[in-house]
Design a protein that fits this description.
The complex is a heterodimer of chains A (268) and B (284).
Chain A: H1 16-19, H2 22-38, H3 42-59, H4 63-70, H5 74-85, E1 93-97, E2 100-103, H6 104-130, H7 133-143, H8 154-184, H9 194-225, H10 244-265
Antiparallel strand pairs in A: 1-2
Helix pairs in contact in A: 2-6, 2-7, 2-10, 3-6, 3-10, 5-6, 7-8, 8-9
Chain B: E1 3-14, E2 23-34, E3 38-42, H1 49-55, E4 64-69, E5 72-73, H2 80-86, E6 87-90, H3 103-114, H4 118-131, H5 147-159, E7 165-169, H6 177-194, E8 197-201, H7 205-209, E9 213-218, E10 221-226, H8 228-232, H9 235-241, H10 247-257, H11 269-283
Parallel strand pairs in B: 3-8, 3-9, 6-7, 7-8
Antiparallel strand pairs in B: 1-2, 1-4, 4-5, 9-10
């Protein structure tokens, strides 16, 4: 049951998008989000959508996968949409009922907000779908490098992320084992009130925590044995390098933002 | 041959927790390991095997006496990294010593810590993975591999640091027979072909029987030390400590109690059968 949880959601592949430097993809995501928030009109939205569709196309990620990822977010999307429906009272009145007034302005605003959220999420999906967790961690570490001067423990944070990702499947397996052991001794996780079921989780969490601490202790010893002494003086097997495609990507990203800004100037 | 590890009058007491007195493991322990040798360390639980192993690369520091690795005092803080680079450690649970979520990234962890240049790390990682015969799994996720494969990755992670000596603390305890065989073959090959000194801490008598030298620990002291034939012939001593000789030796020993006169140095079942055959045909 717990095995179904997919993590990192990475789709291995060799498309142009996959091969981009993780730093490029991270920066591009930020640029893309900024552009989305700058876009105020349907024309600029259409431009962003065209850009997004083009990127999905060349990333070879099946659109189905993106739609599937969207499912848990339907509620948030609907909520935002309905809320925004009443935010604007401009334009022609479409429905008037008791204190509820829906206008054309409201409808267009709601549609725009929903489109913005959808495109925002799709964009970030594209990053996690095309970048392996380890590349993502490396990219983040490299991008946050300058923060080291401000005494932010960048390397340690990246190492923690890496180890967390490494141990998630191990701990899930362990949880499964503990649950089976408790079930074998008559524990009931499926029936009873919410309170009962929450209480039934305690005998799982206690051994899980104890074992996680023991693992952490052993891992620390093993890391020390392998000469780990923090980020200082550490080298990397796979150094990150910007290639020609990365500069193209920056160029295209810049052009899209510029286009959105210019369109905004013309009120489109 | 020169000594790679030498333990001189080692004393060690685990510090007690708040007021309770600590547990003394060693009082006066002496042991040397020659370079290029393949040594097994045997003993019951709690006899100090793992504690001893942790002294070999400065994870624990002696409370008294000295431990030298390649002539370097392990308690010398400044040389700790040299010591750890010379002596690699492999532990019992492969899951708890793999750091990264891609095989090759994990093998690269040690050399990366040593500050080796990128292309050189790549070369070492490929070489180490080929030596443990896991090269084709280099892009796999470790949690999807079998226990024996994971343990071989852990060994690759250690040899990528190019140590002179590998200390394995019960590396096969959590593995199935196949995984055990894979790991034993791998470390045997590393010892023969690369001349890496191997110190194998184990519970399995048949594994110890394959080593050049067997050291039996009991209550923090060396109880027996010699070739497997010499050590396992001392069946009474092993029983007193709570260990057993390999099955073939045990069989000969039991038969001797019934009045036979069998040699106690036949570690291989075939040799043992031959010896029994000879004794029986002589008596007829």
């Amino acid at each position: 049951m717990l095995k179904d949880i997919t993590l990192g959601q990475y789709f291995p592949g060799h498309s142009v998008i996959h091969r981009l430097d993780p730093r490029t993809k991270l920066i591009m995501l930020v640029v893309y989000i900024v552009a989305l928030f700058l876009a105020k009109t349907w024309v600029s939205y259409a431009l962003m959508l065209a850009f997004l569709v083009w990127v999905i196309q060349i990333s070879t990620i099946p659109p189905k996968a993106i739609v599937r990822g969207m499912k848990p977010l339907v509620m948030i999307l609907l909520f935002t949409g309905i809320l925004n429906l009443f935010f604007s009272q401009d334009g022609r009145v479409l429905v008037h009922f008791w204190i509820i007034t829906v206008t054309t302005g409201g409808v267009s605003r709601a549609a725009m907000m929903m489109a913005r959220i959808l495109m925002l999420i799709t964009g970030s999906f594209l990053l996690t779908y095309t970048t392996s967790p380890i590349a993502l961690t490396d990219g983040l570490e490299s991008l946050m490098g300058p923060l080291k001067k401000l005494k932010v423990p960048v390397h340690e944070l990246a190492m923690m992320m890496c180890i967390a990702l490494r141990f998630i499947p191990t701990l899930i397996e362990e949880t499964d084992k503990i649950m089976s052991a408790q079930k074998a001794r008559g524990a009931d996780f499926e029936n009873g009130s919410l309170m009962d079921r929450a209480k039934a989780l305690i005998p799982i969490l206690v051994p899980l925590f104890i074992s996680a601490f023991r693992r952490a202790d052993e891992l620390a010893t093993a890391m020390e044995c392998r000469c780990y002494q923090g980020g200082e003086g550490r080298t990397k097997m796979k150094q990150l390098h910007y290639h020609r495609n990365d500069f193209f990507a920056f160029g295209i990203g810049g052009a899209v933002v510029l286009a959105v800004v210019v369109l905004g100037q013309f009120g489109l | 041959m020169s000594e790679i590890i030498s333990v001189e009058h080692l004393a060690y007491t685990y510090p007690g927790v708040e007021g309770t007195s600590g547990v003394t493991v060693f009082e006066d322990m002496n042991l040397t390991v020659e370079e290029g040798s393949f040594v097994a360390i045997l003993g019951t639980n709690g006899c100090g095997k793992s504690t001893l192993a942790k002294h070999f690369n400065s994870i624990l520091l002696p409370s008294g006496g000295k431990v030298y690795v390649c002539g370097i005092d392990t308690s010398n803080e400044e040389r700790i990294m040299t010591v750890r680079r010379s002596v690699g450690m492999v532990f019992q649970n492969p899951d708890n010593q793999i750091v990264a979520n891609v095989v090759e990234e994990d093998v690269a962890f040690g050399p990366e810590n040593l500050g080796v240049a990128g292309p050189e790390i790549r070369r070492r990682v490929d070489q180490a993975l080929k030596q443990v015969e896991m090269y084709e799994y280099r892009e796999h996720a470790p949690h999807l591999l079998s226990g024996g494969q994971k343990q071989r990755i852990a060994i690759a992670g250690v040899i990528a640091m190019e140590p002179k000596c590998i200390v394995l603390d019960e590396p096969t305890a959590m593995l199935d027979p196949r995984g055990r065989r894979e790991v034993m073959e791998t470390i045997g090959r590393l010892n023969r072909e690369k001349g890496i000194t191997v110190v194998l801490i184990t519970h399995h008598m048949d594994e110890a029987a394959k080593c050049q030298r067997v050291v039996v620990l009991d209550k923090g002291k060396v109880a027996a030390d010699g070739t497997p034939q010499e050590v396992f012939a001392q069946v009474e001593l092993l029983h007193r400590i709570g260990l057993a000789a390999p099955d073939s030796v045990e069989l000969c020993w039991e038969l001797n109690k019934q009045g036979f006169d069998l040699p106690l140095d036949k570690l291989d079942p075939k040799d043992c059968a031959q010896a029994i055959f000879e004794v029986i045909s002589k008596s007829e």
